[in-house]
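So, can you check?
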Amino acid sequence: MLIGYARTSTLEQAAGLEAQVRDLKALGCEKLFSEQVSSVAARNVLEAALDFCREGDTLVVTKLDRLARSVTHLGNIIAILEGKGVALRIVNLGVDTATPTGKLMLNVLGGVAQFEREMMLERQREGIAKAKAEGAYKGRKPTARAKADEIKLLAAEGMSMSAIAAKLGIGKGSVHRALNASPCEV
């Protein structure tokens, strides 16, 4: 049986998920699993797909990055599938682990994909460091501190910390800190 798995990282990528599902159906997948979740979050639907697979089945994904977050993660998935006698097919790479060549290609491509991701993250860190040095990257504005006067005014009117937090859209701990801060801290 061909079992399809589709994933996008965010809800805004609905069209991407629909395209994956459409492609998996066109390939003849009889059972489809799909989810919209970050690759680093818990992926319960992927776990369900892996549990569903039986000996002789093939798990099909449209792209490698829809399945695994790293070479290690890919290795874990492959170990689970091999332990069950299940093949893995990655459509855009033309890889099918039902063959020895497919297994070799998957390992090579997985290594290249991880290298590419690590290079991207390194460039991102370098860009952030440069922006910080130039004063362009300052992080998130401290919203609660900017509202300290309003917090104190609402507290003086008798409003509870929970009510102030809800009204201003900040955490109760931020309200507490603003009310207990010395004048030079705010």
Remarks:
- The beta strands are 2-8, 31-36, 58-61, 87-90, 95-96.
